[in-house]
Amino acid sequence: xxxxxxxxxxxxxxxxxxxxxxxxxxxxxxxxxxxxxxxxxxxxxxxxxxxxxxxxxxxxxxxxxxxxxxxxxxxxxxxxxxxxxxxxxxxxxxxxxxxxxxxxxxxxxxxxxxxxxxxxxxxxxxxxxxxxxxxxxxxxxxxxxxxxxxxxxxxxxxxxxxxxxxxxxxxxx
Length: 173
Description:
Elements: E1 5-9, H1 15-28, H2 40-48, E2 55-61, E3 64-76, E4 81-91, H3 100-114, E5 120-122, H4 130-137, H5 152-160
Parallel strand pairs: 4-5
Antiparallel strand pairs: 1-2, 2-3, 3-4
Helix pairs in contact: 1-2
């Protein structure tokens, strides 16, 4: 049976769905549910508010939400152009192997090209079988680059050392 697959931009009314998908992704990544702190209000504020910080696409299979991709702009100083960073891409287990992940990635790639962006980046866990999927799409593993993250108390501690006042880029002296 041929399924009808539709990719559409997410709307504020999808905030609950996006949080549900993020929680499902966390479970897939073997993380406890409490590691997901994002709320519906966070998604509405940061994705659909006055200053959107991300965009999302919703995939539907036969009219039922089946997955999503969440992304935001980054910038390449070497290219001198922006790119898109895919923070999350997830397809419900029962909807996998129907081309939904490929369609989501193709839609993000199209958005990047339409905006004149130079590249698309993402990170994947070393055990995730989706690595093969990404390679088949043409993404390459950047073995010489290792991700680092600063968060929580370490972020707060380092921020206190800045000596800056107010907003970055503003001179409050």
